[in-house]
Amino acid sequence: MAMDLDEPLDAEKGEAALRRLRDADPALYLSPSADLAAAAREASKHLYASLVPFSPAQPPPLSNLLAGPAFDAEQIWSQIELLSRPLIPHLRRQLRRLEQQPPSQPPPRTESKSADAEEKSEEEEDGEGDEELEELDDVDDEEESEEEEKEELGLEGEAGNEVEDEFFKIKDLDKFMVKGEEAEYGGGAKQGKKKKKTENWMEEDSDSEDEEYLDEDEEDDDEHLDLEDFDDEEEEEEGAVGDIMYKDFFQEADDQKVRKKGGSKKVQFKDEPDKPEVDDKNDDGNDEQGLSTHEKARLKMHAKIEEMEKANLEPSTWTMQGEVNASSRPKNSALEVDLDFEHNVRPAPVITEEVTASLEEMIKKRIIEGHFDDVEKPSPLQFKSPKEQKDLDESKSKKGLAELYEDDYAQKAGLAPAPLSISDELKNEAKTLFKRICLKLDALSHFHFAPKPVIEDMSIQANVPALAMEEIAPVAVSDAAMLAPEEIFEGKGDVKEEAELTQAERKRRRANKKRRYAGSHKERPAKMQKD
Amino acid sequence: MLRRNTRLRREYLYRKSLEGKERQHYEKKRRLREALDEGKPIPTELRNEELALRREIDLEDKDSAVPRSLIDDEYAGAALREPKILLTTSRNPSAPLTQFVKELKVVFPNSQRMNRGGQVISEIVESCRSHDITDLVLVHEHRGQPDGLIVCHLPFGPTAYFGLLNVVTRHDIKDRKAMGKMSEAYPHLILDNFTTKTGERTANIVKHLFPVPKPDSKRIITFANRDDYISFRHHVYEKHGGPKSLDLKEVGPRFELRLYQIKRGTVDQAEAQNEFVLRPYMNTAKKQKSLGA
């Protein structure tokens, strides 16, 4: 009971402190004041208590804010940080959602605006304070409406039962007692403030700290304002507990009261599903946002892997296999496929009109130039001279071997010319014939041709006197006596007698005789021819 | 006959041994001639025999200026007499092949066609030699499409083996009036783009199937080499006015020849040396050109 009673009192004190801070003139904040500092501490306590049930860590490290006069501003702030740091991301997410759903909840917008406004310069802070005050007014209005609802419920109870008249009176008594307690506690707060004033006056350096503290208080106020709705719900729950205690005293009325309370519980149940929905939404959002990229990548990878595995496991088409026999190939499949394979051999030329035209052009050019590659007729003239035909002389040789050797030696020594060969004879004959032809041609072509004079050979007649004259010598003398010695001697060259000759000379004389005999024999046919 | 063959064989070996010496002698004369033409000093090693070489150079004529290789000796005296060609087919020729051979008979002057029957190639070659036939031409087919031509020069070879492609005969063309009649005059020859040694050899083999034409002959037979495919074309031309007005009229069969082997012996000598063999299975076969540019 004491606990239950204390908590509402603390809450009321906190609210009162917040009202003081709100109603105070902005000019008062320029100078340190113990009253405002005490009010700020109370307000921060109140807000801290309202935030505790929402901390993610249960139980929280500090169930209550220790904001007594013994604690500095930094110490108080560090305690608040312990609680608020884990809460901030949670609150931000809720704010984002509320932004996404503007028509359903307009108040959160104003809160977000105020948060943005905080970022502005210090001069604008006053404006921010005004906005905050307005928000507080709105919250108070809501509370008033709730209180009205509670009163209506109470009235309905009274009208229903005659016994409740007594109960109604008891409630009024309880209210009066609470008010009295609040008045007493309010006096305690004032005393605390006085002590703080003394400390503040002594500590001149704490001005900046106070300013920071004020800013922090403002932030705390914002957060607490966000959660005041939850405080209302908690109050409702506490009321239910108190009612139960009253049930113990009045059993008959408890049944009817329980029904009404059940209705209130139903209302709570309606509120409850909203929370899990919010949580679910948050979770869904978290899953989609955080996991979606990762899951998408994973899904893509899985899809690729499955496709590759299928491609590897499925049997490939016959065109992708290595060597394929006709039996393993489907029927008529090669007809529809263009197979590529290399030919080492250059393919045969396809004879087109261009090819034919180029060939004909080349042929025409060759014909015009007369440049043909015909077989050439060999030259009719023989390039080899005809072989000499040597006539074989079958007659017996008229010369002996000794004479032959003699002639050869004479030729080699140059004493006698070489014997005439058949070719030489032919040449001489040709020369004579050529001379005759030239002579005839000259006779035909010259007007003043003079034939060559015939020169008769001079013949010397022996034994003929030069003059037939009268001779001095007597007639009786013979001719023999009148001749000179030369005329008488018919020189045959036989000066020596045979007895005087040597063997060689004798043989030579005989050979000469034989030759003369042969010569005379040769001369005879010549003479006959001459005749 | 055996004795004659023995004598010919010994003569061949003797002349082949002389070929080296003749080649050296020719080189000396060539170097001397070059030195004289360019006005450079005579090489030192040739000064001793300069006079003799000069004398020989002065006495040279067309035939003896350049020594001829023994390989081409088969055609040394080919121009002295006109070619005499025997045309025959593979065994059991089909009607299209017979028609093609008939057309070839008109294409090659001084040629006669013989039915193959059951004769063996060695017998055919022997009878050709005895009858002084200079060239034996065998035509082969595949399902009525001519695909092979073998030209064997007698009495000692060489033998050239050709594949036939894209054969279009006169019998294939139905319009006979437009086609006209085929001339039988001795034709002029045009051999285009036979620049390599094998190309020159092939041109020589093909050239000596035809006799010496008259200068004013109006018939043209063309062998044009394009990427080692020899295009055979048969034309008749007319000149009306100036040199530019020239009417070419294509007559007779046209086909492409693909040379795949040249043997130095006759067609019946399986052991003869190969002078050229087409090797299409090598990776460089695509860019090799064995007959011309």
From TrEMBL, chain A:
Signal sequence extent: none
Basic and acidic residues composition-biased segments: 245-257, 268-279, 385-397, 492-505, 520-531
Chief location category: nucleus
UniProt feature, compositional bias: Acidic residues: 119-165, 201-240
Composition-biased stretches (Basic residues): 506-519
Subcellular location: Nucleus, Nucleolus
Keywords, comma-separated and alphabetical: Nucleus, Ribonucleoprotein, Ribosome biogenesis, rRNA processing
Biased composition (Polar residues): 314-330
Database matches in InterPro entries: Mpp10 (IPR012173)
GO cellular component: a single term: sno(s)RNA-containing ribonucleoprotein complex
Disordered: annotated span: 94-167, 181-297, 310-330, 376-397, 492-531
GO BP terms: rRNA processing
Function as written in the Swiss-Prot or TrEMBL entry: Involved in nucleolar processing of pre-18S ribosomal RNA.
Family membership: Belongs to the MPP10 family.
Record-given protein name: U3 small nucleolar ribonucleoprotein protein MPP10
Automatic annotation (TrEMBL), chain B:
Cross-referenced Pfam families: Brix
Gene Ontology BP, a term: ribosomal small subunit biogenesis
GO cellular component, one term: Mpp10 complex
Domain of life per record: Eukaryota
Positions of the Brix domain: 83-268
Transmembrane portions of the chain: none
Coiled-coil portions: none
GO MF terms, alphabetically ordered: rRNA primary transcript binding; snoRNA binding
Name this polypeptide is given: Brix domain-containing protein
